[in-house]
Amino acid sequence: MSSRVLRKLQGEKELNEELSDPDPETDLPVTGGARRKQLNINRYDLLNQQSLSESEVKEDDNETEATNPRDGDEPHESVKRRKKKKKKKSGKHSSVQRSSEDNADVDEVERSVREVNRLLGENYVPGVSSGSSLRPDKSTHIRRSILTIQHKHLNPNNELKRIFGSKIIQSEHKRKMRGGRGHVKTTWLVSSKDNWPQAGKLGLSMSLIETKYGGIQYFTYEHSQNYRQIQNKFLEAVESLNPDNIVTIINEHPYHVDALIQLSDLCKLSEDLAMAAELIERALYSLECAFHPLFNIAQGNCRLDYRRQENRALFITLFKHLLFVGGRACYRTALESCKLLLSLDPENDPLAIKLIIDFYALRAKEYEWFIDLFTEWESTKNLSQLPNFAYSVAVAHFHISDGDLKKADALLQDALLMFPGVLIPLLEKCSVQVDNRVSNHSYFGPSAQSKQSPALTQLVLLYVNRGYHVWKENNLLPWLERNVHTVLDRVDSKDVIVKDFEAKRAKRYQGPLPRGICRHILISDVKGVSPLTEDFSASILSFDPLPPPDSINIYEKPKRPKPGTNNSSAVGIFFRSLLPSFNAADIPEQLLQPEEDGARALPGGEINIADDGNDLRRSVASLVGAMRDLLSNIRLPDVPNEADVDENDDSEDDDEQNNYLT
Fold first, then answer.
1. Per mean pLDDT, which range of 185-189, 391-395, 514-518, 577-581 is the poorest?
2. Residue 33 in 3-state DSSP?
3. What ranges do the domains of the chain cover?
4. CA within 13 Å, CB half, 122
5. Sign of the four-CA dihedral 273, 275, 279, 285
6. What three-state secondary structure class fits 425?
7. Residue 164: what pLDDT?
8. Triad 191, 193, 194: Cα angle to 5°
9. C-beta atoms surrounding 158 within 10 Å
10. Where is the composition biased (Basic residues) (predicted)?
11. 264-286 tens-digit pLDDT
């Protein structure tokens, strides 16, 4: 046999001895065929082997030297077997056992991941600011860290699981998923439902306009040519004052945003809150599907210009959505939606989210976050000049005081001194009887409310009617009573700060309410609060209430056709008044003209027909408003159409609308 063949056989034998790991208790001879099979099996184990670094070799040598064999007759064999077992164990458990250098690499990666998460705000730590070079503007970083969002809290089902238990929510979800559609786009704000139509090309898109200093990115929505045609048809349907035209548009285009908003308000007017909330979710889903890839709602650095007509739909829809979600006691989800809305335009706040974010922060027990928001924004936003913030920040300090109430007492006393008109209505809403000293004192008595300006009265009523639930806790009312008497003592002792607060109230809150606050009141629809819209003569549209004066429009409002004699009766005006876009100024003049005989019969000499017409118009508007309120309180049974009934739905779905509280 040649030497080349001998060397080949000898090398194969040595290689087989290195790779094979026979059982130490059974050293049986292996044939050539078995040797090839062993090679084929163990060949892939080499992929799991890791090359040893110098430090690992030293560690291995130290371990070998420290571990001496007990049996002195076969030291070489025991060391050899130990090394073989160690190699095999390292190959099988390489993903679990790591060397010191691997752990160092993993620690470095984990530190990098934690740094990125901290910069992106995944885990927000109150009071911690970063000095990273990625945030050159300190104020911008603080504002972004305050407004960063945890997307897991945007799903109300996660909060419902914490409230009612995961088993109940999962079983309900599985029941509704029977016979569901295939794969749909994953979204954060809302999830597509099985009874929704398949979403194709919606005609909505989003583009990046610019990126400013500090990483602030400005986006805008864009409408395709087809979507613009649909929008023009929708505007004509609104001007026609016929709800059937809006329903026709939704049947043809089930994801048209403004039509869904308009129909949702009609469903809300008829007390079908479940359908109203679902229509808003569908509109929000349509808007979210059009997000730009760089439009990350969790970072808090994405902006939308409210002046652009295309962008307002996201503001309006998201606001209505958080109101429905908050009505289901999902306060943390509503809070995250408020943060998202505020991050879209924190400088202008076109929907006055600052008037509602305190309520959801307290209900969600996010006290420290709310205090940080107040601390960081007080110097630039003057949040203490809003009644809701003045009282709510005191409540937040009370909950985290841990027995030390000095800070909470000082804040509550300042709020009572600055806004004394809040106390009596708040106690009445909480069904608390006011003692004689408070009710008879001039500082908190009826004169305190009469001295308020109309604008301040609206802010006070909005806070009281929305936030009185927070004050119904047993430990808050005794604390409030104690501080009220302390404030009265300071007033009786002629404290200087009392005069300062009176001067501030007399100087501020004068004139009409800003348009942003009026929009907030209109959309919120809080019982007992109505906006003062004397300065807004145009009709108010629910899908775009009170657009800004410097609005950037791509659509022109179509001219409303003049009503004929058939639909100019009082009955026709009443039914048209049911639409949210109704405007009393559009009442036909012929209905407002008094008859000549009646005019001559009235005493008082000369009659000003123009003034008489204005008075009659106001009377008709008041009558129509009263009839709308009367109709809204009538609950009619909902009879679903056969086409709207799902075969998989159980009778339990009938109670779904009760989840939405008003």
1. 577-581
2. helix
3. 360-513
4. 6
5. positive
6. helix
7. 73
8. 145
9. 15
10. 79-92
11. 999 999 899 999 999 999 999 99
Structure tokens at 640: 């679903």
Q: With CA atoms as reference, report the closest residue to 194 among 661, 647, 654.
A: 647
Strands 302-304, 216-223: pairing is: parallel
d(CA 203, CA 225): 8
Residue 202 in contact with residue 282, Cβ under 8 Å? no
Q: What contacts 652, CB < 8 A, 6 or more positions away?
A: none
The angle that helices 273-289 and 312-327 make with each other, rounded to 10 degrees, is: 140
How big is the CA angle at 567 (ends 565 and 570), to the nearest 5 degrees? 105
* Burial category of 582 from C-beta neighbours within 10 Å (exposed 0-12, middle 13-18, buried 19 and up): buried
Question: Mean pLDDT over all residues of the chain?
Answer: 74
What is the pLDDT at residue 165?
72
CA–CA gap between residue 579 and residue 309 (Å, rounded): 22
Of the candidates 392, 200, 219, 190, which has an alpha carbon nearest to the alpha carbon of residue 288? 190
CA dihedral of 507, 508, 513, 515, whole degrees rounded to 10 = 120
Distance in angstroms (rounded) separating the CA atoms of residues 517 and 348:
11
**345-357 pLDDT per residue, tens:** 999 999 999 999 9
- For residue 43, what pLDDT is reported? 54
Residue 195 has pLDDT above 50, yes or no: yes
Whole-angstrom distance, CA of residue 153 vs CA of residue 234? 34
Tokens standing for 281?
A: 């979710």
pLDDT at 174: 52
Cα-trace Rg, the chain: 36
Residue 404 to residues 194, 410, 415, 485: CA-CA distances in angstroms? 52, 12, 19, 19
Closest CA to 139 of 148, 150, 149, 129: 129
Our measurement of the distance from residue 632's CA atom to the centroid of its chain's CA atoms, rounded to an integer in Å, reads 28
Residue 48 near residue 88, CB atoms below 8 Å: no
Token reading at 367? 């006290």
Q: If 0-12 CB within 10 Å is exposed, 13-18 middle and 19+ buried, where does residue 558 land? A: middle
- Give 550-576 pLDDT, tens digit per residue: 999 999 877 665 544 444 455 556 555
Q: What are the tokens at 52?
A: 């040893």
State how far the alpha carbon of 506 is from the alpha carbons of 70, 415, 503, 515, in Å.
95, 16, 5, 21
How far apart (Å, rounded) are the C-alpha atoms in residues 541 and 543? 6
Enter the pTM of the model.
Answer: 0.66
Say yes or no to pLDDT of 421 above 50.
yes
User: Running DSSP on this structure, what letter comes out for residue 32?
Assistant: H
Output the CA–CA distances (angstroms, integers) from residue 616 to 303, 580, 603, 610, 623, in the order listed.
Answer: 46, 22, 17, 10, 10
Q: Where do runs of H (alpha helix) occur along 31-121?
A: 32-42, 54-66, 75-92, 100-120
Closest among 276, 269, 353, 266 to 630, alpha carbons compared: 269
pLDDT of the residue at 166: 63
